[in-house]
Each structure stands twice: as C-alpha cells, then as structure tokens.
Design brief:
It is built from 14 helices and 14 strands. The protein is α+β, with helices and mostly antiparallel strands. It folds into four domains: 14-64; 84-252, Nucleotidyltransferase, domain 5; 265-327, no CATH class; 342-428, no CATH class. The strands form four sheets. The protein has a five-stranded mixed β-sheet with strand order 3-2-1-4-7, with helices on both faces. The protein has a four-stranded antiparallel β-sheet with strand order 8-11-12-13, with no helix packed on it. The longest helix has 17 residues, at 408-424. The model has no long low-confidence stretch (mean pLDDT 86).
Length: 431
C-alpha cells in the first residue's frame, strides 16, 4: 500500500522472489513430498537451514509452475425452487459390528435449498434405489420436477447424457411421483456438484469416531445427522441454512401422490424339507405343513413376507448385510412330542404294577439288573402283557422269576411256548 501511495507500484510487473536461488532445491523437494508445500518448508528449514515463509514458498511454487493451474469458474447453474434434485452414490468405509465394511452411501439434495438426505446400504441396485428415493421424497415432503443423476446402470438402460435411455422400471417409478430422471454428460460431474461435495462432508463429519451395531442403526444416525447438523449449517451460497431455505422452496414442490404402491421384489421359492426358504443366502422359516410347496416371497425394505395362494403364511424381519443366517418364527417348527422320563415311569407303574405279586417282583428286579434306563425294557414288557394271553404271560413271568431270567427275548420265547401248549397241544384221540 505504501508503494502504491508513493507511486512506485507498477501494475502487472511482479518483483522477483528473493528465494529464487532455492528453485532447484524446491523443485526436488516438491517432487519428493508429492506436492505438500508444508513438508517442503519444514525440510528446507531442518535439513538445509533456509527458513522460508509459507507465503513466499507458495509464491515460488506458482512462479515455477510446479502445480497445474486450477480450473477457473466459467459460470454457474441457476436452480429455481422446486425444479431440481440431485442424486448420487459413493463408496464409504464404516465400522459395523466391530469390523470395517464397505458401504454405499446414497444421498439426494434439493438443488435450490440444499436440503440433504442420506442413507447407507450394503449394495445399491434398482431395488435399493427405489426404496431410497421414496424415503428421500418423504423426507422432503414433496417432489421436484427433475432429478439429476450420473450415467450409472442402476438408472440408465442405454446411452449417456442427453441421449441416455432410462430403464423402464425406473422411468415408471419416477412417473408415479411425477419426477423425471436426467443424466448429466460424461465428465461433467459438476452438473451435480451440490450432491458431490456433500459426500466428502458426510465422510469427514459424520463417520469419524462412530461405531455401529447394524444397518438400521447406521441409517437412523445418518438421518438424524442430516436433520440436526447438515441441514442446520449456514451455506455461504445461500447466506442461510438449508432448513431455512427449504421453507421458501417447499410450496414449489409437487405434492406426494395420494397412493403409492408398496416397494418389494417378488420371488418364488420351494419350501425345503427343513421348513425354510432362502433369500440372499439367509433362511426364513415357514410352517411345516408347507414343506415341498411353492410359495411367493415379497422382499421389502425391512421385511420378508411369504404367501401361499394369495394368503400370507409368514412375516419376518429382513436380515440386511448378513450371510447364511437363519430366522425361525415361534410356532413354525414344533418340537417332537417326547414324554419325559417321569411321565414314562408313571405310565409303566400304572400298567405293570399292582396286578400280581410275581409281576411286581419281576419288574423290580428287571430295573435293578439294567445298568442304563429301563424305559425301553418296561415298554417291551408292557407290549408282552397287552399282546399275549394273560395266563401264558403270568405263567412265563413266574417261571422267569424262578430262574432269574431277565432277558426279554428269552421271556418272549417262554411266553410263546406256553401259548403253543395251551392252544395247540391236541390229544391223539382228537385226531
């Protein structure tokens, strides 16, 4: 300012730097530290004893043209309220269940007010795209006329840019809301710069220091972060917060449709013999009576619904981001009807004991002669009692008790011998 007031300043003529002699060394260090000027200045001071002020060092870097010149702004986009939203996805890494996992961050912002909505998914297909866009429009409380996207195959079936042909499935989905998808030209990602710069904001502001237990917790927290932090931060381009600007844009948005069909994938499966169907490697239980039957599955955002002949037979929470897991609903697979040892012992006592002194003694000694549980032997003895004639059975038990015979195979042979003697022992004069 003193030079200008004294008339000594010559516009357009820049004085040479007093540190020009260090130019070869600066070039070498600039390459070594991959363009980090701060590290170049530290090395100049520590290793070579040259304490170069940072502004002088950056000026020397500019004079030496070590960096490519920054792109100059050539213009700006005008975003009338209610006309446009911008949507894109970006891969982020987050800590889920104590592990670092790769997730797809989907985000959408209203171009005029910059109101932001974001969610995370293990993968992002057209199914997830429809779920996300539906939730985003609910969050906005209205529908913009256009949605700017990139040339991803999730949305685009063929072509690119202004020649892009949207997938019929996604075009029909946008038609439900009265919103048209529009792809920007390849290499012109600045066309949706509003949403692009938000991904770095999410990655550097929302994710650091956060740990999550499941995907539902991730999406609850990122939604709260959008409402409490991102949409309440003053934007220099707006001179206000997105929430405040949204109050002006809200009347220009189209209303949400009065009726929206549910978003789900329809799948067909055959119930296996274990009573389960498999969806995305995870198994969901079905009532046992439908084993081997064909069922229809409606895979929703958070639910798995199963139908048989247009009737719902099961409803499960969808397992998201998991593999080879299993859900069994109460009442689907009844455990085998097994009698307890106590109830079996009571039944044996009721059937065998109290009929004769010999049988009571035989049962007692049979139990004491068996090392393991005598349940099977007692059941077989009951079968003998109920199957063979009473006289033959009682006579065989007395004989077995007399000789200490506790092998039930031999007892049965003894019973059969008495049965044969009683029923088939014919005298000669009867021939």
């Amino acid at each position: 300012m003193r030079r200008i007031l004294a008339g000594k300043h010559q516009p357009g003529i820049e004085r040479p730097s007093r540190y020009e002699s260090l130019a070869p060394l600066v070039c070498d260090l600039f390459t070594r530290y991959e363009g980090n000027v701060v590290l170049v200045g530290q090395d100049l001071k520590d290793e070579y004893g040259h304490d170069v002020p940072y502004p002088s060092l950056t000026r020397l870097v500019r004079q030496l043209q070590l960096r490519e010149p920054a792109n100059k702004r050539s213009g700006s986009f005008q975003y009338p309220p209610g006309k446009e939203a911008q949507h894109d996805t970006s891969p982020h890494r987050l800590i889920l269940g104590g592990k670092s996992v790769k997730a797809q961050c989907a985000a959408m912002a209203l171009a005029s007010s910059r109101l932001l909505y974001a969610q995370y998914y293990p993968r992002f297909t057209r199914f997830e795209a429809k779920i996300f866009i539906s939730q985003a429009l609910d969050y906005f409380g209205g529908v913009p006329r256009n949605c700017i996207i990139d040339n991803t195959s999730v949305m685009v079936a063929a072509g690119s840019g202004c020649d892009a042909v949207m997938a019929p499935e996604m075009e029909a989905f946008g038609g439900i809301y009265g919103m048209r998808f529009q792809a920007h030209e390849i290499g012109h990602s600045d066309r949706k710069a509003i949403i692009e710069r938000n991904f770095r904001y999410i990655e550097k502001n929302f994710l650091p220091g956060r740990r999550f237990t499941d995907w539902q917790q991730v999406n609850r927290q990122v939604k709260n972060w959008c409402s409490q932090t991102a949409n309440n931060k003053i934007k220099r381009a707006l001179a206000m917060t997105p929430r405040q600007a949204y109050a002006t844009e809200k009347p220009w948005l189209q209303p949400l449709p009065a009726f929206r069909p549910p978003i789900y994938q329809s799948l067909t499966r055959v119930v296996d013999l274990s009573g389960f169907v498999t969806v995305d490697t995870n198994r969901y239980s079905v009532p046992e009576r439908f084993c081997g039957k064909v069922v229809e599955i409606h895979k929703g955002a958070e639910t798995i619904r199963l139908f048989r002949k247009y009737k719902k037979i099961a409803d499960h929470e969808r397992l998201i981001g998991r593999r080879d897991a299993k859900i069994t609903a109460p009442g689907h697979h009844l455990p085998p009807q097994r009698r307890t040892q106590k109830s079996n012992a009571d039944n044996h006592r009721r059937i065998l004991l109290g009929h004769s002194q010999s049988l009571d003694q035989y049962v007692s000694r049979l139990k004491s002669s068996t090392r393991s549980s005598a349940t099977r032997k007692m059941q077989r003895l009951i079968n003998f009692k109920q199957t063979y004639p009473k006289a033959a059975f009682d006579k065989a038990v007395e004989r077995a008790l007399q000789y200490g015979l506790y092998d039930l195979n031999r007892l049965e042979n003894l019973i059969l011998s008495f049965v044969a003697g009683d029923f088939f022992n014919l005298n000669d004069h009867d021939h």
